[in-house]
Structures are given as structure tokens and as C-alpha cells.
Amino acid sequence: MQLLSILFPKSSYDLNDQIRSGDIALDLLKPVSIVTQLFWESLGHSITKLVIVGGVDLALYFWVLDFQFNLLAVLLVLVTGVLAYILYFELELILGTFTFYTYSIWEIATFKEALLLILAGNVFPAYFYPQVLKQVASYLPFQYSFSAVGMLAQTPSWQLFLQIVVIQIGYIILLILLFKVLFKWSSTKTVIQGG
Questions:
Q1: φ, ψ for residue 135 (rounded to 5)?
Q2: What is the pLDDT of residues 115-139, one digit of tens each?
Q3: Entry pTM
């Protein structure tokens, strides 16, 4: 779970910086959409972190723990991990649209991090939570960007895999549509400061 939190993008901060500096105006004029630009930049940063930090983390993990390699589990976790990355990227983009109104994302991002720590199961695994909190967390996308991948890594099964993938894809489609509406509305109302 810690490796996922290191690898996942911070696109809301990138969008915040572009809006505050006024560079968003130039980026909107480019033939490639702002979402595509941010996604590939984030993916490049994540791959670099995976090689530098993740490689060391994984090496220590395999060295300290008695790990038995299960190809099926690795493939299932890899697919859900990629979908979790895309889902988290969409959450970051939606969070970034608030910068059009606040011109600062730090407070909102801190609140999001607190929610992730609790509702995604980063502090404690979600199955240790009271039933009410588990029920609330099961309807929110946070759990499917973190702890669902961890649950699948611990107990790989096709039924759990299909359930997680269907929910992740559903949230990805919903969040893409939500972001497009929010971004279109927000970007037409913005005033670039300083120029």
C-alpha cells in the first residue's frame, strides 16, 4: 500500500501550479488536451519513482518476507493496479478543478489525504473498521484506488478480481464525465492572475 501511495500522481498540484502561474492558458491552446498532458507527465514521474524508490522497497520486501511468486496474483494485481492508478488520477484532476476557485489546492489536498488515510484503508485495513464505516467506504472510490488492490494481493481470486475491476471501471467512467463537466464550466469562468 505504501508503494502505491508513492507511485500515485499528484496531478492536482500540477494543475494548481498551471492555474496560479497562468500557464493553463497556453496549455489549453495546445493540440493535446490538458488531461493527456498531465497523464503522461504523471506517468513519467511515477515510473521514475518506481525504479528509484519502488525497486528498493520491493527488494527489501522480497528479502525480508518469505515470498512465494504466484504469476496469477501478480497479473491480477497488475491489472487492478493500473486501473487504480487511472482512478486516482481522475480523483486528482477533479480536485485540481477547485483551484479555479481557490487559487490554492493545499488545504483541499490535505483534506483529501486525510480521507484517503481513513476511507481507503491506508491507516488500518478496511476490514478492521466498524461496520458503518466499512459500508460508507465501500460506496466511495477511495477504497478502489488503494485497499482493493491490497486485498486482491493477499487473497487472489477471479471473483474478487472481477468485482474490483467492474467497480473501478464504473468509477473511472463516472469521474471522467464529472471532470469534463467541471473543467469545462470552471475553465470558462476563470481569470488568470497577473496576465
A1: -65, -45
A2: 777 776 666 666 677 788 777 777 7
A3: 0.81
